[in-house]
Amino acid sequence: MAVYNAQDNAVTEHNPKEHWQRIVALSQTMLEAAHAQDWIGLIEMEAQRSLMLGQVFDYPWAADERPWVMANIRRLLETNQQIIDLSEGQQRGCAAELHHFNMGRRAQQSYGENQ
């Protein structure tokens, strides 16, 4: 089975464990992007990872491989939660800044009306 390899923009023969390793590595890079507040980069990597995840589940995993796959899924979920926590923190910070900006704008408008 051939799959799209987002890292080198090429179609390669499907090696499911290597594919998972690329997904896990990309997830770590996504977490680093979140720490660096590179939200555009994070969105682009999420699109790549989504495609890769769709492909990895097309593979029929043998029973003895399932624990390994489940461990990787848990790693992805943990990394995703860290990314969510970082992005929610950034969202709260932006909301607070916007709130302060709007308060200042209303104060200026009110001051202008009383002149």
Any key phrases for this structure?
115 residues; Methane Monooxygenase Hydroxylase, Chain G, domain 1; mainly alpha; two-stranded antiparallel ribbon
Structure description:
This protein has helices spanning 16-35, 39-56, 66-113, and strands at residues 2-5, 10-13. With 115 residues, the protein is mainly α. It has a single domain (2-113), classed as Flagellar protein flit (Methane Monooxygenase Hydroxylase, Chain G, domain 1), CATH 1.20.58.380. The protein has a two-stranded antiparallel ribbon with strand order 1-2. Strand 1 (2-5) and strand 2 (10-13) form a beta hairpin. The longest helix is centred in the C-terminal third of the chain and has 48 residues, at 66-113. The model has no long low-confidence stretch (mean pLDDT 80).
Tell me what the CATH architecture is. Up-down Bundle
Query: Into which percent range does the helicity of residues fall?
Result: over 70%
> What structural category characterises the helix and strand content?
mainly alpha
Number of helices, counting only DSSP H or I runs of 4 residues or more: 3
The CATH superfamily appears as Flagellar protein flit
Q: Kindly, what is the distance between the CA atoms of the first and last residues, rounded to a whole number of angstroms? A: 74 Å
Low-confidence stretches: none
Radius of gyration: 21 Å
The main sheet comes to: 2 strands, antiparallel
| Overall form | rod-shaped
Output the strand order for the largest sheet. Answer: 1-2
CATH top level is Mainly Alpha
Determine the CATH topology.
Answer: Methane Monooxygenase Hydroxylase, Chain G, domain 1
Order of helices and strands: EEHHH
What would the average pLDDT be, to the nearest integer? 80
What is the number of independent domains?
1
The number of E-state strands comes to: 2
β-strand amount: 5-15%
